[in-house]
Design goal:
The structure is a single chain. By secondary structure, the protein is of the alpha+beta class. The protein has 2 helices and 5 strands, in the order αβββαββ. The chain has one domain: HIT-like (HIT family, subunit A, 2-Layer Sandwich). The protein starts with a helix and ends in a 9-residue tail after the last strand. The structure holds guanosine-5'-monophosphate and zinc ion. Guanosine-5'-monophosphate (5GP) binds next to strand 2. The site of zinc ion (ZN) has 6 residues, from helix 1.
Amino acid sequence: MSDCIFCKIAEKKIPSKIVHEDDKVVAFDDVNPQAPTHVLVIPRKHVASIADLNEADASLLGHLMLTGNKIARQKGIAEGGYRLVVNTGKNGGQTVFHLHLHVLGGRPMHWPPG
Ligand code: 5GP
Ligand code: ZN
């Protein structure tokens, strides 16, 4: 989508620190990290939120989550533990409406989240 910031990051039209990419997803450092490791994993195709996915997207969603695991191993946080988060919609705290998986780690996470 032409006015979507994450589409532009995936297309490398605006800069980001890309840590992993393949034909389906792109992963890059969050510009405002909330933990020592804070990476966002996005599908290349524009999807506003996880609420817009259905059964036909199951393999894409699985790949997104498994890429989160891969990033955690790559960043050295897999052993200590980490958190995968998908904020969804206004009450979910979503601010960028291109589906993204947060990969957070490198410090203990708290529960419940704010
Ligand atoms: P949300 O609140 O939608 O779950 O998360 C959006 C995330 O995108 C936030 O953590 C925010 O810091 C990050 N973000 C917003 N704009 C940019 C950007 O231009 N570049 C990068 N790398 N991250 C961004
Ligand atoms: Zn987009």
